[in-house]
Amino acid sequence: MASIERRTRKSVSGKTSKSYRVRFRDHCGALRERNFQLKSEANAFVESLSRMRDEEHPDYAGMTTFGAIADKFLDACEKGRDGRLPVTLSTLRGHRTMLRRHIHPFIGTKKLRNITPSTVNSLVEHLVAACPSRVSAAKNLTLAKAVFAYAHRHGYIDKNPAKGTTITIDLRERRSGKLKCFEEHEATAMLQAADRLESHSNDKVAKAWRRYRVMTHILFHTGIRVSELLGLSKSSFDFAANTVEVSERVDAWRNIDPPKSAHGCRIIPVHEDVMTLARNYLLQHPHELAFANTKGEPLSPRNLRRDMWDRLLREAGVRTLGFHAARHYFASALIKSGANLLEIKTLMGHHKAEFTHDKYGHWIDDQGIRSAEIASFVSRQLRTNTTPNDIQKPKR
Alpha-carbon distance 230 to 166, whole Å? Predict the structure, then answer.
């Protein structure tokens, strides 16, 4: 929508003149302006802009609800919006879920032209109250802001009513919630259970666990995501260097894609015993995909949870936690070993060190390993370099 601004100017001779400036956005989204001597001319120009927009965007006059634009936004995401790569199916599914559960019930039927910053502030209050956490509310708001930005960029609205709106997340609140992570004795029990199941008296069970045993050890010794585990191929294993390279992942629909970000592509050092276990398995495995079904196709993450993970939890007698608990165990082991934040970030495949610190920073504080080392180092430096005679009294 265009806006009309009245302007008053004084000439050198002292004569006052009035004009009317119309600010509007063209079809490319660029901000433009035109000046008119009469207000009636400015109003006529604004009306012509409205007619032109209705002809260019048939949806604009009638179906320009937030829900309709959100559907266009999702279609663009699926194809690759505004020069970006297409989003993964799991990301698209997450967007649809957030819109359906929390955003559409509040503003889905509202016309974009009627949504103001006050409406967005009410949406923020709704999200904070309806979502299970402020982190979840912030994610929903980020999605809503992306839809508004898309509408603004493509000329459906002249101003973005959500610009500058945020939901503040208290890091103390985020860190107060403990991550669901296996303890060391639980991780050991699961690895031992996997070893026992490979020697099961039932040949069918033993055959399945020749593969599942290797997968279990890799999960705990590398901290990779289960989707990345299923995307490993024979060429991912470097037995000379004892490393595993992560370069692909398998989504919930068994599609093989690159990791969601470039930071997910990484090389992880692995203990030689685990590499020997993997080599013995892969020598008898006929397919290029390291953990494939009999047809050489990717395994289903859902079926893997049922056939491997749930059986392993029962056999080990540990808490019922998901695959990600093994990943958190690996992170805790890195922290205990004294790895620095950048090393942990790289091995975990995180996009930012800040994210790693927000996720695992409280463990670093709890362990006190790095803090103790720093305090000891500072104390030694002070004792070595400073004596009571070196301290000068302040001049009066």
Answer: 37
Average pLDDT over residues 249-276: 91
Model pTM score: 0.68
Closest CA relative to residue 242, chosen from 219, 222, 262: 222
Please report, as a single letter, which amino acid is at residue 390. D
Q: pLDDT, tens digit, for every residue of 96-112?
A: 999 999 999 999 999 88
Q: Contacts by 57-60 with C-beta closer than 8 Å and gap 24+?
A: 57/155, 57/156, 59/156, 60/156
Position 394, amino acid? P
Cα–Cα dist 203/174, whole Å: 47
Alpha-carbon radius of gyration of the chain = 30
Non-local (6+) Cβ contacts of 33 within 8 A are: 21, 22, 23, 24
CB atoms within 10 A of CB 177: 10
pLDDT at 394 over 80: no
Instruction: Confirm if 223 and 343 have CB atoms less than 8 A apart.
Output: no
Q: State residue 256 phi and psi, 5-degree precision.
A: -95, 120
- Asked whether 151 and 105 are in contact (CB, 8 A), the reply is no
The pairing of beta strand 3-10 with beta strand 16-25:
antiparallel
